[in-house]
Amino acid sequence: MIETDIELLKGIANTLRIHSIEATTAAGSGHPTSCCSAADVVAALFFGHMKYDAKNPHYYNNDRFILSKGHAAPLLYAAWAENGFVPIPELLKLRQFGNDLEGHPTPRLAFADVATGSLGQGLGVGVGMALAAKQDKLDYNTYVLLGDGEIAEGSVWEAANLAGFYKLSNLIAIVDANRLGQSQATMFGHDINIYVKRFESFGWRVETLDDGHDMEEIMEVLSGVGLDERPLAIIAKTYKGAGVSFLQDKDNWHGKPLNAEEAAKAIAELQPSAKSGLGVAIPAPTALPAPNLAAPASYPAISYKLGDSIATREAYGVALARIGEVDPRINAMDGDTKNSTFADKFFKKFPERSTECFIAEQNLVAVAIGYATRGHVPFASTFATFFTRAADQIRVAGISQSNLKLVGSHVGISIGEDGPSQMALEDLAMMRAVVGSTVLYPAEAVATEKLIEQMATAKGVCFLRTSRPKTPVIYGNDEKFPIGGAKVLRTGDKVTIVGAGVTLFEALKAADTLKAEGVNVTVIDAYSIKPLGKKEILAEAKKTNNTVITVEDHYSEGGLGDAVAGELSSEGIKVHKLAVVGIPRSGHAAELMAAFGIDAAAIVKKVKSL
């Protein structure tokens, strides 16, 4: 780095500030002061340090940048405008409907790998990206810019813990410690030594920028990236609104744009030393071999015998190991439950493609999202109830259009003696609510295996629910299970019973009991909850007095019953729900299903009442 380059970078930083102010003033909303505090670091990264192809943000060996403090989006957009990727006039369309330069970044933009702005998520995604780089034998670094306010989020420390454990020397966290939060000063203000001690305690190498606006100091610290095997945290003492005298380090400016007069005054201060980044030579990424992440033409065949008894959670493990043999994209992550989710079958067979994330479910999901950004197909598993801890990460994964695969085991009261804290009874509702999600609930092994195959080739957030009890194989190995379909297993003229998972077998038992009494009912396996097999269910319901009974091992809100009612009520179908109501307790699965009215006897009783 020659001396004159420092002056150029300082000038580019001021240009980024000007763009941020102009864009937010034009929009009438935004966070210009949060952009100003990080402008020097971003200028140094994008125009003096990172290796990337500015014309091809998706190039597989580009250094990656995650703006975890997503409210500083105008700063990110300004950087990609000054490197020539975004036309500069577009910046003034910030936050306009129909424009991809939104209030917080999303992957509608080629240079945004994930949606950010729900604070505390960026570092976990960065961990996944850094792990993927090592697995793919690529030398790109992942840089995550965090605000000091979001350091209060526990998910940040889950990520820091795992990065230190796996010694991710290709991961760099930069904390923009500008002291001021939204409503008051941040927890530790400018006492950056507290952040130093915390990152060090998690196994990170830590460097400080006592003046996070000193370009020479910034470049000197960045020159030490990758010096040892530890991840690097850079704690930068900065000032909110830096560079503008009437904004710098002042309260009550968070999330407030400048009016036209204030903007003109601020720009007048910045303009004399501002310089353009257009045409600046950006270091090129290394031309290493691209990883093989191609989907196979087909998967190995399965072989089950009708009547075999196997839990769907075990079938998941078998399926993942089977498709992993031919699909190099498949990766597995788990949260220290792999011997119960049966993900350990994949871990043992493919340790190089397996990541233990330990008991930190927010980070488990974030790491999987990070892998997905790099072309991998991550399957993350744990007890389904624990995914509720990561609801925000999953929600934002939907916004990111992430190719995320989640498998939750130990669902419902049928897990038995472990008690209500371990029983996933809200998971279908949560996963159905995620934008663009696919929600699957197989009843037996063949369906599980075939649905895992489809999850691997489908796009977007997919969730598959597995059960603890063993269930008999009822489908042939060649049976197909299209997403959005359903299986009609019995036909009758009185009522249509829709079950899924363990309740399908209760419905079949009920159908046999009723048939012996001269009452014929239809039974449907709703293995696809979202999208629902509406066509099949509606066709059968019309043959049974427009009457449907749903039976589910889930709370009555948001699960199978609501899915069926939501799709069929407009068609004049009456839907009666049998579901778990109230707080469960420990007991045998059969006792609990009887007590909460979702077993065969309860179904028979309901049919007769109708």
Short description:
The chain has helices at 3-27, 32-48, 73-82, 122-135, 154-165, 192-201, 215-222, 260-270, 312-324, 338-341, 344-349, 361-373, 391-399, 427-432, 445-457, 502-516, 534-541, 560-568, 589-595, 600-609, and strands spanning 64-67, 142-147, 171-177, 205-209, 232-237, 309-311, 330-334, 354-356, 377-383, 405-409, 438-440, 462-465, 470-472, 487-490, 496-499, 522-525, 528-530, 547-555, 574-580. It is an alpha/beta fold.
CATH fold name of the largest domain, please?
A: Rossmann fold
Count of folded domains: 3
Which CATH architecture of the largest domain? 3-Layer(aba) Sandwich
Shape category: elongated
CATH class of the largest domain: Alpha Beta
Average predicted confidence as pLDDT: 97
The number of strands is 19
Q: What does the radius of gyration come to?
A: 27 Å
Largest sheet: 7 strands, mixed
What is the helix content? 25-40%
How would you name the CATH homologous superfamily of the largest domain? Thiamin diphosphate (ThDP)-binding fold, Pyr/PP domains
The strands making up the biggest β-sheet line up spatially as 8-7-9-10-12-11-17
Low-confidence stretches: none
The structural class is alpha/beta
Treating each run of at least 4 consecutive H or I residues as one helix, how many helices?
20
**Distance N terminus to C terminus?**
81 Å
| Relative strand content | 15-25%
